[in-house]
């Protein structure tokens, strides 16, 4: 019944158009291309970029809207998932209703609209998490979460695609900034210092640890502060923040009632020819080997859950920390993979965990397009 209700507000012709656009081929771009193209944000380049997004975004959004209709285990019918689907259909309709972009005025109006689309989708991740939770509540507890592989794979595709959509919109919008910070091309910092970003992310994670526990382990960072390479600082901040926060929590909980001083967390930044690798090492007791496959699933978290049926996710300013709904690691891995990197976790049960975050230094890998 709920599913039917959601479709009633969308015409049959719109749904048909979604299916038509969802079959079209997506076009990926590389970090290097975004950087080179955006380094000269002339009116002509912004016009070309706007025209590209006017065709590309409906294809990407249509694909996700179609997938949201046919999820396994009845996930598509959950109220939170229906709401997400409505956001995608609204955005598709807005994009398709916008006339062809012929001049700078059209492009400026288009930029306003895609900025609003980005805001509309701000809470997609917690809303989908709520949908998965609504599903888990009604499910037979005997179902093994590994069996929910289809849902996990869908969420990987869905969130990876969302990272791409938000990167493309954010990049285009930011190119309009009349006073960009030095060395910034849209979202990309051409001379980003990974050590500096790691310092900032660590301080933020440590502040949360102090707030929650009243104390926090030290964090030692090793690497050349002067080393820079082109990357998206917000992406790196999100990933390092997540890894450090997990390590802080593990060490803090292990040493909370101990007389011994909690050992520091070590962050090592290494520059290779192909990759920049950031290793986050802790002595928080590690993860049993049987638990390792679970850490990258969306259906598992050791933290207490801040999401519940009563969370009002309709408001754009809902602030939810990643700690609670266990999405930090799988989503961080997607951010790493988006620009050709990866995230690996190696654990020694009884001792601690090492997280290896690999970032591609070359910047020429194409976006993964699920």
Automatic annotation (TrEMBL):
It is found in: Mitochondrion matrix. Its main location: mitochondrion. This is Protein-serine/threonine kinase. The keyword Transmembrane helix does not apply. Residues 233-363 form the Histidine kinase domain. Keywords: ATP-binding, Kinase, Mitochondrion, Nucleotide-binding, Transferase. It catalyses: L-seryl-[pyruvate dehydrogenase E1 alpha subunit] + ATP = O-phospho-L-seryl-[pyruvate dehydrogenase E1 alpha subunit] + ADP + H(+). It comes from Hibiscus sabdariffa (roselle). The keyword Iron-sulfur does not apply.
């Amino acid at each position: 019944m709920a599913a039917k209700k959601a479709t009633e507000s969308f015409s049959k012709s719109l749904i048909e158009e979604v299916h038509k656009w969802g079959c079209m081929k997506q076009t990926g771009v590389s970090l290097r291309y975004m950087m080179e193209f955006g380094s000269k944000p002339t009116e002509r380049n912004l016009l070309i970029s706007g025209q590209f997004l006017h065709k590309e975004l409906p294809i990407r959004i249509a694909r996700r809207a179609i997938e949201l209709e046919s999820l396994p285990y009845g996930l598509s019918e959950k109220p939170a998932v229906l709401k997400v689907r409505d956001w995608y259909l609204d955005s598709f309709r807005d994009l398709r209703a916008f006339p062809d972009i012929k001049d700078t005025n059209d492009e400026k109006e288009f930029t306003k609209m895609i900025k609003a689309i980005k805001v509309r989708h701000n809470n997609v991740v917690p809303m989908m998490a709520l949908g998965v939770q609504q599903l888990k509540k009604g499910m037979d507890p005997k179902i093994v979460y590994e069996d929910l592989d289809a849902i996990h794979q869908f969420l990987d595709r869905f969130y990876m695609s969302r990272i791409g959509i938000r990167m493309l919109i954010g990049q285009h919008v930011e190119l309009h900034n009349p006073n960009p910070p030095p060395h910034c091309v849209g979202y990309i910092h051409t001379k980003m210092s990974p050590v500096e970003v790691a310092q900032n992310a660590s301080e933020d994670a440590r502040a949360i640890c102090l707030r929650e526990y009243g104390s926090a382990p030290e964090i030692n960072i090793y690497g050349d502060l002067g080393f820079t390479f082109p990357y998206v600082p917000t992406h790196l901040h999100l990933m390092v923040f997540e890894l450090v926060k997990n390590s802080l929590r593990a060490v803090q909980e292990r040493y909370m009632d101990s007389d011994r001083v909690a050992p520091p967390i070590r962050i090592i930044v290494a520059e290779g020819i192909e990759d920049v690798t950031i290793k986050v090492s802790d002595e928080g007791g590690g993860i049993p080997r049987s638990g390792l496959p679970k850490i990258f699933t969306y259906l598992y978290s050791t933290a207490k859950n801040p999401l519940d049926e009563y969370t009002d996710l309709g408001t754009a300013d809902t602030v939810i920390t990643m700690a609670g709904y266990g999405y930090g690691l799988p989503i961080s891995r997607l951010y790493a993979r988006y620009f050709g990197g990866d995230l690996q976790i190696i654990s020694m049960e009884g001792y601690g965990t090492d997280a290896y975050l690999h970032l591609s230094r070359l910047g020429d890998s194409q976006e993964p397009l699920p």
